Each structure stands twice: as C-alpha cells, then as structure tokens.
Amino acid sequence: MLSLLLQANFEVPSMLQDLLDSEFAFLLLLGIFVLEGAMLMYFMPSELVVPGAIFVFGASIETAIVIISIAVLGATVGQLALFMVAKRGGREYLLQKRWFRVSEERLDKFDGWFDRWGPIVVPVSNTLPFTRGMLTVPAGFSEMRPRNFVVLSALGTLSFETLLALLYFVVLPYL
Predict the structure, then answer these.
(1) Could you tell me which of 121, 27, 132 has the C-alpha nearest to residue 74?
(2) Can you give the residue ranges of every domain in the chain?
C-alpha cells in the first residue's frame, strides 16, 4: 500500500503543505506527541507518527534525529501530565473520566505488572507497541518521584521512537 502511495503522485493538500512548510510544523508535531504521551491521541496509532513524520519532513538521518527528539520531549511531557493526574486524582478519579479510555480490568493488569516488576516496567512498556504508556498511571499511583518517572519515561520513548525510525529506513526501501 505504501509503495503505491510512493509511486503515485501523492499530493498533500495545499493548506496542509503550507502548514508543514511553516515554522509551526515542528510545534504541531510536538503537540501531537504530547497528546500521544497523555494517551489522548485516538485518531492515529502512535506507531505511525514517527515514520509518518520522517516521510513528510524528509527521509534523512538529521531529520529523523530532530523528529525523535521532538517525540521524546512531547511524549514525556504528555506522560508526565498523565502521571501527575494519576498521582493527584487517584484511581477512581481517572476511571470516572470519559477521556480516560482504559478499563478497570486493564488497569488492574497494569497495576499488577507495576507491583511485580517495579519502576523498570515504565521504560520497558514505553518501548513495546500496544502497552506503550500504560504503566504511566500505575507509576502515578505509586510513591515514584516525578523526576524518576521523567527519566524512565524518556528512556523508553527514546528506544521506541528510535526503533520506529530504524524500521522506516530499513523496511521502506523494500516496499
């Protein structure tokens, strides 16, 4: 499918192209990653953001480094916000919020992971697809200090986004 898009004269709408060419393009990308980190980005799988950004902004190593840096900053800010909401609001508060789309059963599962493995699961879960960011909330419920959470969250996001960028550069040439 992607190869068909690349072979076709895929044209970005002019309004979107103007935004991508402006000085606000990377700020928009930062906002997307903040939403992704806070688990509020329901319109797009997080696994597509970095490869999509590399595709749109230019497939160079330098551009990928900038995009990964923006991803780490934005996702970490978003996860820290969710961590603080969990820390201050608590479990029942989050489960009552419509924007928090994690069921009580799934939250129990991730609480169990955090209880069993401790803080190390934060970067591990941030590195894995489909569990990405899920340990943010149990970490917020724990006694973990925000500074420790930020470091662990950023490390996991850095590894996840770097792997996605590498996949883009390794797999795309074969499509």
Answers:
(1) 27
(2) 25-174
CA–CA gap between residue 7 and residue 130 (Å, rounded): 30
pLDDT bracket for residue 131 (50, 70, 90): confident
3-state SS record for 17-82: HHHHHCCCHHHHHHHHHHHHHCCCCCCCCHHHHHHHHHHHHCCCHHHHHHHHHHHHHHHHHHHHHH
Q: What is the pTM of this model?
A: 0.86
Rounded Cα distance, 64 and 170, in Å: 13
Report residue 83 as tokens.
């961590």
- Helix H or strand E segment including 159: helix 146-171
Q: Using CA atoms, how far apart are residues 9 and 84, in angstroms rounded to an integer?
A: 45
Using the structure block, give the residue that is written with the tokens 């955090």. Answer: 114
